[in-house]
Amino acid sequence: MSASSNPVTSIPVHTSTLRLLQSLKTGAQNWDEFLLESFENFLPPETLRELAQREKERDVPGSVVRTRHERLRAQGR
Q: Residue ranges of the domains in the chain?
């Protein structure tokens, strides 16, 4: 999946929820990895296969992620 067809999103949560999640997430994990790993045991097999396929297709350079982040921040998102 190309980076342009899979943009980064923003999920609104309460500050207390964010703090709890941040305390559980390791520094080596990005949010995608953390959330997917957290719910891996609850996902049906077909969803896990789809995620595995997407992972093979996903390879976004850090410079692209940084550019998107800066653009979204400039837009107030």
A: 3-74
What amino acid is encoded at 1 in this protein?
M
- Please say if the pLDDT value at position 1 is more than 60: no
CA-to-CA distance for 51 and 71, rounded, in angstroms?
27
Q: How far is it, in rounded angstroms, from Cα 32 to Cα 37?
A: 8
DSSP string, 20-47: HHHHHS-TT--HHHHHHHHHGGGS-HHH
Structure confidence by residue, pLDDT tens digits, 22-56: 999 988 899 989 998 888 888 888 888 887 887 77
Instruction: Taking residues 6-32, report their average pLDDT.
Output: 90
Largest separation between any pair of C-alpha atoms in the chain:
39
What is the distance, to the nearest Å, from the Cα of residue 59 to the centroid of all Cα atoms in its chain? 13
